[in-house]
Structure formats: structure tokens, C-alpha cells
């Protein structure tokens, strides 16, 4: 047990999974959910009414909040687990200095669209959180498998690796292995890009492409990710490590991947709006690809897969035509 107070901001499946993990080691986990009705449901019935509903919580292990400012004040470490598209709307009314002396980990795996920044840079620029107090939580890990307590691996990255290790110690349990890293830029950008690649994989699946082509797509995708993160933050890193390649594989191939699901619908002819309504969940890759497209105007990295996804979901190019063009660019 520990006296370290950890707060999770988010009410979705990944936030729910993170709270479940932390309950194994922490005396009580602070947990913010946007909906007052969801908070009340959790108090009465001990489970999230919308996501991972099979996960039962003990009331003495969770402290529920409906106000963001209060959970931040009550916590030493904050874990952000809301969709990137809504992160700024959740935090924007907070006093600028409220996060300054907190340790903040992003489990978002997306880019803040209002600023076109990864979460770490957003926290530093908008709330002046020192980079040594900012971290990233990445996979390969799907919330659904955490709910079933299937063995899963996480990577926690922070410029100060001791800070990453501090949270990692509270997350290791029988079914969760955790590695600490100091590559905050590489892990965060890789987590963003793998969602874009998963959308591409889903589009191919929806169009009827098979496993043979998907393997070529993913092989080219990891090279695309490596080129981009090297341009953004050129340090030595093993792109084959689970935080990079592993996270890509689980998102591109898994039945639980909402980005792949979104892409599959697009490939089958759904409009973006219809796919979003059908899923009732946020596919981070949809928002990420636009931000990556804008960022890459500066870096000018060769990114044929990301460009193809952008052309399909934002420029409304026919998925079948765009994928045929992409085929000639892969090797």
C-alpha cells in the first residue's frame, strides 16, 4: 500500500481499466467522471454504467469526483484519460497554476486539436507543468483485456525516469507488467501514429484486402513511424520495442481496436459521421491524422499511409481509389 494519492480523469474504457489496475496497490484511487449520473451509478452499483460494465469496484477503493478542480487538488499524480478531442474542454476552465506542482501522466494517445500539440507539450505550454513532471502511459494494451485480467504490458515514459518508476510501482500486479522509459516524445508520437495506421488497416479490411496485404501495410507503417519520431526527436531508440512496434501491432490487428473498427466502416462505405454515430466511441486516429498532417508540413517526412488516411477521411477521396494509389507506394 502507499500514501501516494493518484487521480484518474476520464470515464471511458481506458480510464476504467486504469482505475482497476491501480486498485490493486493503492489504498484508494481518486476518479473523475464527467457525468453526474455515472458517478451516482458507480456509487450505487459499483460499476461504470457505460464502459467495461463487468468490472466491479469496491467502494472503499475509489473516491469519486464530478469536479475536475477538486480531484486535482486531492491528488499527487494525475492521469489524463479523456479523448484528446475533449481534453482541452475538460481542463480549460482550471486556474493556470493548478497543475504546476503536480505530476501529470497522459494516457490519451492523441493530439490536442486546438493547439496541434501532443499532450505533454500542451501541459507545458498551457499550464506550465515542468517537463520533468510530465509522463506518458502507452501499451500495447487494450482496456477490454485488462478487464479480463489477461497478461498485459505497459510502458511509462517520463524525462525523469524515477518519476515514471514511481507510478509504475503502483501499477504492477499479477496481470500487468510495466517498463519505465525516458523517451516521452517517441512513445507519445508513436502512440498517436499507430491509431492512424489502425484506421488505414481497418479501411483495407473494409475494402476486402486480406492478411497478406495488412502485413505489408504494418511493415511499412513501423518504418513511417520511425521516420516521423526521428524527425521530431532524434535520439537512439529501438523501434522494435513493445512501446512502439507492440503498440502498433495490437491496435492494427485487434478486434478491440476502435480505430480499426472506424476504418473498417469507412472502407465499407460509411461516411465519417455515420461511422462515429454507429460506434458511439471516439476513434483517436480520426482527429490525430489531421494534426499529423499539419505537423508534417514542418517536418516533411515521407508518410504515404498517413497521407492516404487523411485524403480519405478529410479530403473525401474514394477509399478504394486512395488505397490502390497507396499500394504502389509500399514495398
Task: Name its key features.
globular; 331 residues; single chain; Rossmann fold; two-stranded antiparallel sheet; alpha/beta; 2 domains; 10 strands; 51% helix; N-(1-d-carboxylethyl)-l-norvaline Dehydrogenase, domain 2
Which segments are poorly predicted (pLDDT under 50) over 5 or more consecutive residues? none
CATH fold call of the largest domain: Rossmann fold
Architecture of the largest domain in CATH?
3-Layer(aba) Sandwich
Helix content: 40-55%
CATH superfamily of the largest domain: NAD(P)-binding Rossmann-like Domain
Number of helices, counting only DSSP H or I runs of 4 residues or more: 15
Radius of gyration: 19 Å
Order of helices and strands: EHEHEHEHEEEHEHEHEHHHHHHHH
Please outline the helices and strands:
Blueprint: E1 6-9, H1 13-22, E2 29-32, H2 36-45, E3 62-65, H3 68-73, E4 77-80, H4 84-91, E5 103-106, E6 111-112, E7 117-118, H5 119-127, E8 134-138, H6 143-147, E9 152-158, H7 161-171, E10 176-181, H8 184-207, H9 211-232, H10 242-253, H11 258-267, H12 272-279, H13 284-299, H14 304-313, H15 319-327
Parallel strand pairs: 1-2, 1-4, 2-3, 4-5, 5-8, 9-10
Antiparallel strand pairs: 6-7, 8-9
Helix pairs in contact: 8-9, 8-10, 8-11, 8-13, 8-14, 11-12, 13-14, 14-15
Detailed description of the structure:
The chain is an alpha/beta fold and 331 residues long. It has two domains: 6-182, NAD(P)-binding Rossmann-like Domain (Rossmann fold), CATH 3.40.50; 186-327, N-(1-d-carboxylethyl)-l-norvaline Dehydrogenase, domain 2 (Orthogonal Bundle), CATH 1.10.1040.10. Helices cover 51% and strands 13% of the residues. The protein has helices at residues 13-22, 36-45, 68-73, 84-91, 119-127, 143-147, 161-171, 184-207, 211-232, 242-253, 258-267, 272-279, 284-299, 304-313, 319-327; strands at residues 6-9, 29-32, 62-65, 77-80, 103-106, 111-112, 117-118, 134-138, 152-158, 176-181. Strands 3-2-1-4-5-8-9-10 form an eight-stranded mixed beta sheet, with helices on both faces. Strand 9, helix 7 and strand 10 (176-181) form a beta-alpha-beta unit. Helix 8 (184-207) packs antiparallel against helix 9, helix 8 crosses helix 14 and helix 11 crosses helix 12. The chain is globular and about 55 Å long. The relative contact order is 0.11. The model has no long low-confidence stretch (mean pLDDT 96).
Amino acid at each position: 500500500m502507499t500514501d501516494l494519492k493518484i487521480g484518474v480523469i476520464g470515464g471511458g474504457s481506458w480510464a476504467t481499466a486504469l482505475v482497476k489496475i491501480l486498485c490493486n496497490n493503492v489504498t484508494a484511487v481518486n476518479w473523475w467522471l464527467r457525468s453526474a449520473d455515472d458517478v451516482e451509478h458507480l456509487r450505487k452499483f459499483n460499476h461504470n454504467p457505460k464502459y467495461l460494465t463487468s468490472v466491479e469496484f469496491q467502494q472503499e477503493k475509489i473516491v469519486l469526483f464530478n469536479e475536475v478542480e477538486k480531484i486535482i487538488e486531492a491528488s499527487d499524480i494525475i492521469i489524463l484519460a479523456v479523448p484528446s478531442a475533449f481534453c482541452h474542454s475538460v481542463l480549460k476552465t482550471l486556474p493556470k497554476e493548478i497543475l504546476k506542482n503536480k505530476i501529470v501522466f497522459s494516457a490519451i494517445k492523441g493530439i490536442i486539436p486546438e493547439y496541434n500539440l501532443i499532450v505533454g507539450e500542451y501541459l507545458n505550454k498551457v499550464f506550465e507543468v515542468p517537463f520533468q513532471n510530465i509522463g506518458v502511459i502507452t501499451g500495447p494494451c487494450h482496456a477490454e483485456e485488462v478487464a479480463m485480467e489477461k497478461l498485459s504490458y505497459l510502458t511509462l515514459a517520463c524525462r525523469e525516469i524515477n518519476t515514471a518508476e514511481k507510478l509504475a510501482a503502483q501499477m504492477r500486479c499479477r496481470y500487468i507488467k510495466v517498463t519505465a522509459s525516458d523517451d516521452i516524445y517517441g512513445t507519445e508520437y508513436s502512440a498517436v501514429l499507430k491509431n492512424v495506421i489502425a484506421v488505414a488497416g481497418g479501411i483495407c479490411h473494409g475494402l476486402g484486402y486480406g492478411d497478406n496485404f495488412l502485413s505489408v501495410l504494418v511493415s511499412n507503417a513501423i518504418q513511417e513511424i520511425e521516420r516521423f519520431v526521428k524527425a521530431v526527436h532524434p535520439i537512439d531508440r529501438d523501434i522494435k520495442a513493445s512501446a512502439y512496434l507492440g503498440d502498433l501491432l495490437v491496435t492494427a490487428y485487434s478486434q478491440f481496436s476502435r480505430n480499426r473498427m472506424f476504418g473498417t466502416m469507412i472502407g465499407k462505405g460509411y461516411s465519417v459521421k455515420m461511422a462515429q454515430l454507429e460506434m458511439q466511441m471516439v476513434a483517436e486516429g480520426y482527429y490525430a491524422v489531421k494534426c499529423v498532417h499539419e505537423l508534417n508540413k514542418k517536418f516533411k517526412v515521407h508518410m504515404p499511409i498517413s497521407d492516404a488516411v487523411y485524403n480519405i477521411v478529410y479530403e473525401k477521396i474514394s477509399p478504394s481509389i486512395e488505397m490502390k494509389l497507396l499500394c504502389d507506394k509500399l514495398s
